[in-house]
Amino acid sequence: MAIAPLSSSKLSASNSKSQSCDAVIIDGKQVAADVIESVKSRRAMADIVPGLAVILVGNDAASSVYVRNKSAKAEECGFASQQFDLPVDTSEQEVLELINSLNNDTNIHGILVQLPLPKQIDSHQVIQSIAPEKDVDGFHYLNTGKLTTGDTNDALVPCTPAGSIQLIKSVMGASELSGKHAVVVGRSNIVGKPMASLLLQENCTVTVIHSRTNNPGEICRQADIVVAAVGIPNFIKEGWIKQGAVVIDVGINRITTDEGKTKLVGDVDFENVRSKVSAITPVPGGVGPMTISMLMQNTLDAAIRGKNLITKES
Ligand code: NAP
Question: In sequence order, what E strands does the chain have?
Answer without folding.
Answer: 17-19, 24-26, 51-57, 80-86, 110-113, 181-185, 205-209, 225-228, 246-249, 253-256, 262-265, 279-280
